[in-house]
Amino acid sequence: MPGKIVQDRRVVVTGIGIITALGLDSESNWENLLGGVPGVTAVERIDVSKLSCRVAAQLYDFDPKKYIDFKAARRMDRFSQFGVKASMDAVSDSGLVIDESNAHRVGVMVGSGVGGIETFEKQHSILLERGGNRVSPFLIPMMIPNMAAAHVSIASGAKGPVSATSTACAAGSNAIGDAFEIIKRGLAEVMIAGGSEAAVTPMGMAGFSNMNAMSGRNEDPGGASRPFDRDRDGFVMGEGAGIVILEELEHALSRGARIYGEMFGYGMSGEAFHITALEESGTNVARCMSICLEEGNIEKEDVDYVNAHGTGTPLNDIIETAAIKLCFGRHAYKLNVSSTKSMTGHCLGASGAIEAVVSILAVKNDMIPPTINLYEPDRACDLDYTPLVKKNREIKVAISNSMGFGGHNVTLGFKKYDG
Predict the structure, then answer these.
(1) Contact yes or no for 294/266 (Cβ under 8 A)
(2) What is the pLDDT of residue 3?
């Protein structure tokens, strides 16, 4: 039976899982983020020779058979494999045991921007070369964007609310935010939430490259992703997954769970402007941040860190900077801001979830990862973007921004758990 719908239950983070080009576990990712290690390299496993962008933040040593049953892994697209691996890491990290006594109160919400694009491309080639009767019967259940969430549910045994978000580059953030609200309403005690993406494929690279949205700095892969820098020329695609275990506070305390921090807010706003671009004043993004803070009764002056969407595209970085100043006023210049996409690349639908994990770790450890490759800030980007090296600073409150094609803005808020 579903739980009674209630409001304003407190939600804490009790587990994390993350895989990116910087590592296949949270420890290596955090170490490399703090060390300012670039994850971007030349793309070699697919042919990108005719594209203007030939670099990406890729996972080279991911072997799904090490983490997932071989038969099950063969029937998953790469994005689902990432999602399952990161999710099971997060469940293990949380110490949560899911069994018949609680499975109906544990849910899953995992987003993806494009889903199984690798599977679609491979099967489309088979269709053209060998005919429709040779297309895999698993094409659809491997390709559709909800399948990371579905496989996580199957692998974990979670039988509570199971769903997926597909709001482009905001998908992972929307998934975490929606999971937060599900727990607050009393429909679950625990949610496995985040995002997963694997779009470093011929079509994925070509589509973004031909939009002139990606960096052409092919001779310097490690320096290609340079948010807020004067010489930025576009984003660099990444791949991976980020997952958090969100848990109702009393439930977490009753089982003695380790608490990373508390989630306090979830802001959303729409642009109603353009299919790919933000409205230039930044008003809608500023409103999104304000909504998040208002939900948690957080004063703007109490925010210490903003993990920026920070793509490294010419307009995005200027507009997000303007939005931060609109939201925070003079306090904007006392904030630390950073874009970890400078190291992980832009993992599309997984990016917000990956950056939520980073924000949680920043709060937990009082340490801000840097924005690397930021040598000469754009004149319109005049905040403290934590350039080049990490910064030790007490972080009581952090927010993480995401913006998706179509005008989807999301802000997630995390703070220190204070009992």
Answers:
(1) no
(2) 46
Provide the whole-model pTM: 0.97
Beta bridge partners of 57: 238
Question: Which residue type does 277 have?
Answer: A
Residue ranges and CATH numbers for the domains of the chain are 11-254 (3.40.47.10), 266-415 (3.40.47.10)
Average pLDDT over every residue of 303-331? 98
Residue for token pair 């925010």: 303
For the question of residue 346 being annotated catalytic, the response is yes
Q: Is the pLDDT of residue 265 over 90?
A: yes
Residue partners of 228: CB distance under 8 A and separation at least 6: 310, 312, 317, 321, 339, 371, 374, 377, 378, 381, 385
State yes or no: is 251 an active-site residue: no
The span from the CA of 293 to the CA of 411, in Å, is 9
Catalytic residue among 53, 151, 169, 408: 169
- Rg value, the chain, Cα: 20
What is the average pLDDT across 14-38? 98
Task: Kindly write down the DSSP assignment for every residue of 56-113, as one continuous string.
Answer: EB--SS--GGGTS-HHHHHTS-HHHHHHHHHHHHHHHHHT----TTTGGGEEEEEE-S
Q: Is the pLDDT of residue 2 over 50?
A: no
- Name the pairing type of β-strands 408-415 and 261-270: antiparallel
Q: Which residues pair with 261 in a beta bridge?
A: 13
143: helix, coil or strand? Answer: helix
The DSSP H or E segment spanning 397 is strand 397-404
Q: Determine the pLDDT at residue 6.
A: 53
The rounded mean pLDDT for the chain is: 96
1-10, 259-268, 318-327, 372-381: the lowest-pLDDT one: 1-10
How far is residue 240's CA from residue 46's CA, in Å, rounded to a whole number?
17
> Residues 151, 251, 346, 408: which is the catalytic one?
346
Interval 58-65 mean pLDDT:
94
Q: Considering the candidates 151, 251, 309, 408, report the single residue annotated as catalytic.
A: 309
Q: Hey, what are 1's tokens?
A: 């039976």
Query: For this structure, is 104 an active site residue?
Result: no
Mean pLDDT of 263-273: 97
What residues contact residue 243 under an 8 Å CB cut-off, 6+ apart? 16, 17, 18, 83, 86, 87, 89, 90, 110, 192, 193, 194, 353, 357
